[in-house]
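This week, study the protein below.
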Amino acid sequence: MKTKSWIVTLSSLALLLALSGYASSSTVGPAWRPMASATMAWAPASVATSAAGCTVAITEPRPGQEVAGRTDAAGKATLPPNYHLWLFARRVSYRPLELWWPQGEAVVEQGTWKMPVSIGAPEEIGGEFDVTAAVFDQEQHLKLREHFRNEAFRPDYQPIEMPAATCVAGTLTVKKTRQ
């Protein structure tokens, strides 16, 4: 089955958001993601395309999948030179705060990537978590890398706001059923 993407100008965005019930200008729902240009693309929730020449899609885990505390995420991506793919996870309760725990940089080889993602703390079995992937330019990548190196392995690792991304895969939600 072919997947079609439509480009929607920002002048049409307000009408589309109003019709779809999205009222917040900072959170435009799981299938809409800001891009580097003055356009936005609609695609299935796990795919994003950018005018800057990047694409990113998450193929695993699947939305609604039951997962362990450490699970593999995988997908497909096309990156411009000097751009980097990062994975993020968060508890669904952090959606209103727009905070994420960076999981690290995924290596893209021949258009595919795979890396482990940490899903919550041991006591959070039964909880729902969001997972996404995003592409960053060199400047944002270096900031993420510095934060990750300094904070990720601390027992009190705190979430951050996701830096400005070139393209972001749609957010998918999984359920943690085991450690």
The domain at 48-178 is CATH 2.60.40.10 (Immunoglobulin-like).
